[in-house]
Amino acid sequence: PRDGMQCLASGRITVYERSGQYQLIVERLAPVGAGALQATFEALKRRLAAEGLFDVERKQPLPAYPRTIGIVTSPTGAALRDILNVLRRRYPMAQVILAPTQVQGETAPSQIIAALQAIALQPVDVIILARGGGSLEDLWAFNDEGVARAIAACPIPVVSGVGHEVDFTIADFVAD
Which end of the chain is more exposed for a tag (fewer CB within 10 A), N or C? Predict the structure, then answer.
């Protein structure tokens, strides 16, 4: 354990009756919260890297001037508004097709996978997978192994626009 890490300790408690002090004899210690998520993230990252999912050689080239851009994100989130605003100002000739999905919560990974598969059937040149920033827990859907494999299997190049500059997800490492 490191300073500030949340852990779940189990063991037994002894009492020194004379001084009224308690002692916890820890028999098992496991990270919880962000510590457990971070450990899970690192383990998945190592496994997928070993399989070659992050290798530059498997990444698809991005089109220089895509005519149609697919966007996989929440239809109500700020990320979509930001992307559309930038496209209107800097690349107004692009057509946009939205594949709406939840980007947070228990059902988000399966919805993201379905949205990626659905948008790949559309006439798009590139796909942006996007979500605004948040905590590790908020972004967890983008650290899902199924989502990573769907990105890697997508026949259309995928750009990850998940989180803020300081945020990293498995989706970022797999995306083209």
Answer: N
